[in-house]
Amino acid sequence: MIYVLSSKNQQILNAKKDYSIGNRYLKVKLKTNFMKKLVAEFIGTFWLVLGGCGSAVLAAGFPDVGIGFVGVAFAFGLTVLTMAYAVGHISGGHFNPAVTIGLWMGGRFDAKEIPSYIISQVIGGIAGAGVLYLIATGNGSDVGNFAANGYDSLSPGGYNMTAALVTEVVMTFMFLIIILGATHKNANGKFAGIAIGLGLTLIHLISIPVTNTSVNPARSTSQALFAGGEAMGQLWLFWVAPIVGAVLAGIVYKFMAPNKD
Question: Is residue 23 part of a domain?
Fold first, then answer.
């Protein structure tokens, strides 16, 4: 009888041990998977800043053959399109704090992951701007405003703060409507990256003359840090306006088409 009881106790202990090991393994795996998401967000935002802002700083005004506003608009769209297919399956392909917050408002993202995503996006953007700065200053030329976002004297068209605020709220609102729609369970997800990339291109075609187009606080922060001065003083608008637009879009799209089974 004593032997039987000891055997059962041993089985219970072994089961507990196995459960503990399995639980630890699961926690490590979850943490590893989450880190992969953060790395993907870093890389995606890095590429968005280097490719999009890089086209504005290096190629937009190149003598005789510069790509101009149209080229810059397509460059931004292409960075998002390429990264959506490259790493979107890992992290969801946000690359933008406003997108992360908008997806959360739309019921598509877990609130507890928001801070980590935003930190990764901002650091990725700064890294991209750092690489761009090293390249842009390689021939001794002045980088100008470094594709920073702004209004009044920092606006390419001299638009005031009200125009900039309205532009960024509305453009980000529409960007999130496109994202929420293209990634909805009833949409054809294979083409989501194309719709989102082209949507961002159109947004830039509309709004580059007004604010240099932000709709992305990480992109604005990265450039303002290197441009300094007035760009840093105006940075608040390019956090507030995109987030407001994203929140509104999340609320509206969740009302129109809840992503529930």
Answer: no
Please give the Cα distance from 147 to 211 (Å, whole number): 10
Give the Cα separation of 252 and 257 in Å (integer). 9
State the residue range of the domain holding 208: 34-256
Of 250, 243, 241, the closest CA to residue 103 belongs to: 250
Give the chain's domain count.
Answer: 1
The CATH number of residue 131's host domain is 1.20.1080.10
Question: What Rg value do the Cα atoms of the chain yield, rounded?
Answer: 23
Q: For residue 227, tell me if it sits in a domain.
A: yes
**Would 86 be classed as within a structural domain?**
yes
The answer to whether 122 and 241 are in contact (CB under 8 A) is no
What CA–CA distance (Å, rounded) separates 11 from 137? Answer: 68
Alpha carbon distance 229, 168 (integer Å): 21
Q: Does residue 169 lie in a domain region?
A: yes
Query: pLDDT tens string for the chain (261 positions)?
Result: 444 556 666 666 565 665 566 567 667 777 899 999 999 999 999 999 999 999 999 999 888 899 999 999 999 999 999 999 999 999 999 999 999 999 999 999 999 999 999 999 999 999 999 999 999 999 998 888 999 999 999 999 999 999 999 999 999 999 999 999 999 999 988 999 999 999 999 999 999 999 999 999 999 999 999 999 999 999 999 999 999 999 999 999 999 998 764
- One-character DSSP codes across 106-153: TT-S-GGGHHHHHHHHHHHHHHHHHHHHHHHGGGS---TTTT---SGG
- Say what the pTM is: 0.89
